[in-house]
Task: structure prediction
Amino acid sequence: MALQKMTTQKIIEKKKRKEKIIAITSYDYSFAKIVDECGIDLILVGDSLSMVILGYSNTLSVTMDEMIHHTKAVSRGVSNALIVADMPFLSYKINIYEAVRNAGRFIQECGAEAVKVEGGAKLSPIIEAMIDADIQVMGHIGLTPQAIYEFGGFLVQGKTIEAAKKLIFDAKSLEKSGVFSIVLESIPWQIAKLITQSIDIPTIGIGAGSYCDGQILVINDMLGLFTDFKPKFLKHFGDVGESVRNALHSYKNEVEEGVYPGREHSYEYPQESIEKINEWFENVDIEEEFNKKTRNTTISS
Ligand code: KIV
Result:
């Protein structure tokens, strides 16, 4: 069956039909194209770009310009999945004007169809202003990596009664502000289940158990390409890192041993022309020919 363009409305309908929503991150054209071909519903150009692609130790370092650059590349590879761009640190919390302007850049310049912001009830005025500007917004609560210094690290959230209640109220507040879905990151599954039951928009979990309406993973993590650390929730669905290492060793060996490139990877000259070239080559003084040619083509001053 031909894949159909995913929209925020269709994402919400999937929850109503009790169909799981499948989301994954991407950061470049080639991966986005494969992800899209596999029928994934939602592609997030995550600010995890900062760590898994740019090599920073957290997500705070990636800039608007870098996110714009990668979101453009992703959208060139996508025909069906919903493209959501992650708003980087400080791009939406300084003031409402900057928040709407920056969110709008992802839509206007990059082909994103929605943006994601990290935070709870406090973000309501910002989210409402974006939605007033016809920008679709996804929420993100629990372990919001842009707040790691506030949390003291990449730590599971919502563990106390008060913290769990706050997460439930934050989810309710985000829904009232008009977000079309909420990422729940690194929270106990029972709290994620309560949140999922208490709102009409979908929850997309990462480290939030199986009761969420959908799941998201960082593509470089689930493929075994980023191995700096492995959270408890992460499952490696492939070992692409190992495949890449094997391929590179083979390439190195074959070039060193003269196996690659073979004739099948080389361009062929017609036999009769090569004989003429060979004959010319045997009789010519290359040095003299070269000097004649360069004298004739030198521009006189
Ligand atoms: O930046 C990211 O990849 C994310 C996902 C983990 C949800 O925010």
Q: What stands out?
A: Residues 83 and 217 are 15 Å apart (CA to CA).
